[in-house]
Design a protein that fits this description.
The protein has about 450 residues and is α/β, with parallel strands linked by helices. The protein has 14 helices and 16 strands. The protein folds into 3 domains: about 1-300, 3-Layer(aba) Sandwich (Rossmann fold); about 305-400, Four Helix Bundle (Hemerythrin (Met), subunit A) (Up-down Bundle); about 400-455. It has helices at about 35-55, 70-80, 85-100, 115-130, 205-215, 230-245, 275-280, 285-295, 305-325, 340-350, 355-370, 380-395, 405-425, 430-440; strands at about 1-5, 10-15, 20-25, 60-65, 110, 135, 140, 180-185, 200, 220-225, 250-255, 260, 265, 300, 445-450, 450-455. The chain has a 5-stranded parallel sheet with strand order 5-4-3-10-11, sandwiched between helices. Strands 6-7-8-9 form a 4-stranded antiparallel sheet. A 3-stranded mixed sheet has the order 13-12-14, with helices on one face. The two termini are about 40 Å apart.
Length: about 450
């Protein structure tokens, strides 16, 4: 398996630190509002990646943090007149509902930042003792100049570092690029006691405190959206490596591209976003998953209703082929597909930097063949071909396999059985009426002697 490593800017052979076991961390949401579909794209990509790692035989511990204390949470809670903890708890629950609707279920643990205050303080103490952190009027800051590799992940020269990208601009800092580790208490804000007085953690230190508690000083994979590379991921590296003295925090860095509305990044700060909750009133979780996964994970992707409609049509062909194969009852038919060979081809594509776009391109070719030959497939061949779809769904979760579809299929078969009764009684008026009703609903019938094949168009 090869992964494009942002840190080395190259495609690398993936070698886990411990044979057969993978520890993966992905930055989670700041829970002050409903997440938008841009956030969802990242979570869906890494959910499918984790599922593929497990499908490949690895034992995966997938960790995601929850930022439940932050300026945004405090400011929003103040606006609506509730406590920050109540706000963050509310939107954490809403976030989990969205994840369930999107079939994101591979995360081993969601870790709330406020449960790791002790670990956060401990890390800051080490940084302070080693000379990487300093005290100022409004907080404890990390001195970026003390860490020579700062900027390596993003490829920035220290002299060209961009300032103010979710970094607290403060006159108390020694250098503009320094970032806050601990914010000293301000009136009306939550706080915890620390060696530097009451206060709360900065954004970046939360993640390394969580990962070091559960993974140790270094681990296999760190994921997130590309806009987190600077300064967030740079800060994580600087913090943890300054503490551990090791060469790596994460050995592989994977970054998903941005979701765009027109030419701009989808962002709450720009006001050009669509909440997942809103999108789910128009599209299913499977439709959103397919749209996001049917693209190169590291590339930017445009989002619009027009593009979603086109994507949904492609997914419908896949889902209909799946349902039609499940409904085949004939013992005759000459069309076959080698499921083992197909799955091996899919694996080869996914092993090449998780190339989901090529997987769906190949799948659509085969779906076209299946739909074209659906009347010439035996029950035994259908069972074999369905293994391809089960493999796809275990990783991508785009097929509807619940009991409601089973019952719909049984209802259609009962209607067809009633039609067969009319045909046997030569009541062609009612027989033809049922056929027309079914075809008006997109269900095509093929009569072959005493047997009937049906498929969803």
């Amino acid at each position: 398996m090869k992964i494009f490593n942002t840190y080395s800017r190259s495609l690398e052979e993936f070698k886990p630190l411990n044979a057969g076991r993978i520890r993966m961390f992905v930055c989670g949401p700041t829970v002050y509002d409903f997440i938008h579909v841009g956030n969802a794209r990242t979570f869906i990509i890494f959910d499918s990646f984790a599922k593929y790692l497990e499908e490949s035989g690895f034992e995966v511990f997938y960790l995601q943090n929850i930022t439940d204390i932050d300026d945004k949470i405090i400011n929003r809670a103040r606006e609506i007149g509730i406590e920050p903890e109540e706000l963050s708890d509310r939107f954490y629950r809403e976030f989990r509902k969205d994840m369930t609707a999107l079939r994101v279920d591979s995360i081993s643990l969601y870790a709330k930042s406020t449960l790791y205050i002790k670990e956060i303080i401990s890390q800051i103490e080490v940084l302070y003792r080693k000379g990487f952190a300093y005290d100022s009027d409004d907080g404890i800051y990390f001195s970026v100049k003390k860490f020579s590799d700062f900027g390596k992940l993003s490829g920035q020269d220290m002299s060209q570092i961009r300032h103010g990208v979710r970094i607290d601009l403060s006159e108390s800092k020694r250098d503009p690029e320094d970032f806050v580790l601990w914010k000293k208490h301000r009136e009306g804000e939550p706080y915890w006691d620390s060696p530097w007085g009451p206060g709360r953690p900065g954004w970046h230190i939360e993640d390394t405190a969580i990962t070091s508690s559960l993974f140790g000083d270094e681990y296999d994979i760190h994921g997130g959206a590309v806009d987190l590379i600077f300064p967030h991921h740079e800060a994580e590296i600087a913090q943890m490596r300054s503490i551990s003295g090791k060469k790596f925090l994460s050995h592989y860095w994977m970054h998903s591209g941005l979701l765009k509305m027109g030419s701009e990044k989808m962002s709450k700060s720009l006001g050009n976003f669509v909440k997942v909750r809103e999108a789910l009133t128009r599209y299913t979780g499977e439709q959103l998953r397919f749209f996001f996964l049917n693209s190169k994970y590291s590339s930017d992707l445009a989002y619009s209703d027009e593009l979603m409609i086109s994507s949904n049509e492609a997914l419908s062909r896949i889902q209909n082929a799946f349902m039609n194969l499940r409904n085949i009852s004939s013992d005759t038919g000459s069309f076959k597909l080698d499921s083992k060979k197909m799955i091996a081809e899919f694996r080869n594509l996914l092993d090449n930097n998780f190339d989901t776009r090529s997987v769906f391109s190949l799948l659509m070719e085969k779906v076209t063949e299946i739909n074209r030959n659906i009347g010439d497939i035996s029950r035994e061949s259908a069972k074999d071909i369905l293994e391809i779809f089960h493999f796809i769904d275990r990783i991508f979760a785009i097929l509807k396999t619940d009991e409601s579809e089973y019952h719909i299929s049984k209802l259609i078969e009962s209607i067809i059985e009633l039609r067969q009764t009319f045909r046997k009684e030569k009541d062609f008026q009612h027989s033809d009426m049922i056929r027309k009703m079914l075809e008006d609903s997109g269900i095509h019938i093929e009569d072959s002697g005493d047997s009937v094949r049906w498929r969803i168009e």
